[in-house]
Write a structure and sequence with these properties.
Number of domains: 3
Order of helices and strands: HHHHHEEHHHHEHEHEEHEHHEE
Helix content: 40-55%
Structural class: alpha/beta
Shape: globular
Strand order of the largest sheet: 5-4-3-6-7-9-8
Distance between the termini: 79 Å
Strand content: 15-25%
Mean pLDDT: 93
Low-confidence stretches: none
Radius of gyration: 24 Å
Amino acid sequence: MSFKPILKLMKDGRFSALTGSSALLKHFYQLNYLSAAKECGLLELLRDAPQDFEQLAKVYCRDDKAREALEAWLGLGVRLGYLKLDTNGYALKGLAKKLAQPQNDAALALLQEAAGLHAKLITQTILKLRNGELWNLDDQDGEIIARSSRILEAFQTEAIDRFFPATGSVRLLEIGCGSGFYIKYAADKNPSLTALGLELQPNVADVARRNIAEWGLQQRVNIETGDIRQRIPNEGFNIVTLYNNIYYFPVKSRVGLLKHIRQFVAPGGFLLLMTCCQGGSLGVEVLNLWGAATRSGGRLPRKDELVNQLKDAGFKQVETMRMFPGESFYAFKAMPGGKV
């Protein structure tokens, strides 16, 4: 073996660029393989027990050429460290084995979101801007977003534990209810709580309805499809929540939106708004890009900016709490004042 080509690459500066690019490619392949393994059902097939090649071929192959491609695809999974092959067949390994467990579905959905929506945001946003275009809400997969948003579950449930009463009659309005999980958590905490979950995306609302039925909460919880801005505020709710969706509304319209929402809050009640703010991790930066580059949305707020917007909307008392150590994820508890 000759080292002359390597020395030549090092001399003209190409070697470091080559090795650096190779390292990036490995992470790219890993991310996309895990996302594809979920989408094609492989994680579920291998979650409980190994499967030999013939069993997998019955699911994925129609002819000999497909069998050849399947073997190569599975081989890539072995090389990436997500599959192992022994006398029992193919089995999950490492991170793939962990992500296949139901309790880790939010982390898996976040990878799917990164491989799909985030990749398009990074690669296509500038082209869209050049053509006078922006992203639309329908460009994201609502079900994946609802699943991935549960990555913050431990921190959001802490806010519910802190601010929601555990007893007594409570009427809850959750704006953008997603999967309905946080309504369930609040209902389990307080057996006297009733709730309305309002969801803008019909397919996500359908998921929430199925979940509410599965959890046996149909008598206490109603899920509706609609836009809070189009709803007449003729019902008083003790608690109104906005979880991780203020950036679905343009910055200039947020005070007006919050004024409208304030009219849904009954005397003595409060609004609980939770969101990532400016200055967070790389994931938060991508979220900021999504809001800024979406036609109906807006960038993430700054913490002090959102406090001022809440006060301008007529919330006299605003309490803030950082929910994620080292991250720009905050809870805002706001109590309304008089007329504005």
